[in-house]
Amino acid sequence: MTSRLWPILRKEFIHILRDPRALAVMILIPVVQLILLGYAATTDVRHLVTGVYDADHSEQSRALIEAYRASEYFSMDYLVGSERELAGLLDNGRVRAGLVVRSGYGNDLLKGRPAQVLVLIDGSDPAVANTVFAASQSVGQAHGAQVIQQRLGIDVASLGGVDVRPRVLYNPELRSSNYMIPGLIGLILQFLTVLFTAQSIVRERETGTIEQLVVTPIRPLELVVGKVLPYTLVAMIALIEILLFGVFWFQVPVRGSLLLLIGCSVLFLLTTLGQGILISTVARSQQEAILLTFLISLPGIFLAGFFFPLEAMPVPLQIVSYVVPLRYMLIIIRAIMLKGVGVEAFSEQLTALAILGPLLMFMAARRFRKSLE
Q1: What pLDDT shows up at residue 157?
Q2: Using CA atoms, how far apart are residues 48 and 38, in angstroms rounded to an integer?
Q3: What residues in the chain have per-residue pLDDT under 50?
Q4: What is the pLDDT of residue 2?
């Protein structure tokens, strides 16, 4: 088998090295994608453009506005003269939130009556709205406790009651980059390997060299292996470089075993390379292969739970997601990088990849043999 496989490997390596532009794309594009998406795909909300209508103009209202400004969630860019003007800013999208302090706010506080404040939030983006909603409540409650403490001259914490102390594990700062970067690594690996593998065999068909391969004694499975191994090596180089960028550029920790992460990535690459070969057996041109790659990869991103939690999806879609390899890789890579756990924590996902990888490669080899016939 080795004597028949080696010429295919050598031929594919020469083909990759002879096309420096494609090689540069394979090496550089993952880093560019990671940096762009790492900054773009974030749910952290800071300095949200906010409009303020202060109808009270009291020392107390100014202290409240300063408390919201100091939280760094809100940037008080617009001071307006009426609620109607504030509503107009929200309607045309110039502000994403509005703080309304009505007349009598300071007087209510001084007399010990409940003082209400209205926070208007643009809900057209639910992800941002949820964060801002929680932040507005948190800032308001903290400021309210401070006002009570100053008024009564007592420490609110000393009054007793329920003392809830939430503790966030694995990502205590709740940095979205710690969640997104590991997911992006899996996503970029999938897109890169599927796209280039899908084109490799189609290119042979377009240039007419596939007939030369057919007349050789090499078996379809050996040809498939010979085609995917060079791209596996390139993908591993891409994995290491984007992993380094994730750690040193975005400060995402790797708390688990690096060797385990690489081993799981190889298993994941078997599934993506299998997908690429399957696409190449269906497509008749490189353009068609690229189109099919996008058509298959894009729904897979959503069904993998990359953007939205799988638990929020309808049950039929959750069932379909079980055949999406990226679903398992996202869990594995986040478990290793953020939790620092071992195989026992994601054995189910590892088993799924161990089944899907060889299965997809076998299906790709069979489909490739039929396409040759």
Answers
A1: 63
A2: 20
A3: none
A4: 60
Task: List, for residues 196-225, the tens digit of each pLDDT value.
Answer: 888 777 777 777 776 666 666 767 677 777
| Separation of CA 299 from chain center | 14
Q: Give the N- to C-terminal CA distance of the chain in Å, as an integer.
A: 22
pTM: 0.75
CA 157 to chain CA mean position, Å = 39
What is the C-alpha to C-alpha distance for residues 372 and 364, in angstroms, rounded to an integer? 12
The CA distance from 250 to 177, in Å, is 7
Residue 76 has a pLDDT of: 85
Which phi and psi angles does 365 have, rounded to 5°?
-65, -45
In degrees, rounded to 5, the angle at the alpha carbon of residue 311 between the alpha carbons of residues 165 and 264 is 90
DSSP 168: -
Q: Which two structure tokens, joined as six digits, stand for 130?
A: 């949820």
DSSP string for residues in 65-120 = HHHHHHTSSEEEEEEESSHHHHHHHHHTTS-SEEEEE-TTHHHHHHTT-----EEE
Tell me the CA distances in angstroms from 258 to 190, 253, 262, 264, one per residue in order: 19, 11, 6, 10
Structure tokens at 136: 């507005």
Are 270 and 358 in contact, with CB atoms under 8 Å apart? yes
Measured in residues, the chain has a length of 373
Q: What is the DSSP letter of 254?
A: -
pLDDT (tens digit per residue) in 68-108: 988 888 888 889 988 889 988 888 888 888 999 988 888 88
Kindly list the distances between the CA atom of residue 109 and the CA atoms of 98, 101, 118, 137, 292, in Å, as whole numbers in the listed order.
21, 12, 15, 18, 64
| Alpha helices (H) along the chain | 2-18, 20-40, 59-70, 83-91, 105-110, 126-152, 176-207, 210-214, 220-248, 258-282, 286-303, 315-320, 325-334, 347-372
CB 16, CB 234: distance < 8 Å: yes
Q: Who's near 274: CB < 8 A, 6+ residues apart? A: 356, 357, 359, 360, 361, 363, 364
**CA distances from residue 229 to 125, 212, 266 in whole angstroms, order as listed:** 43, 20, 11
Check the CA dihedral 145-151-153-159 and report its sign.
negative
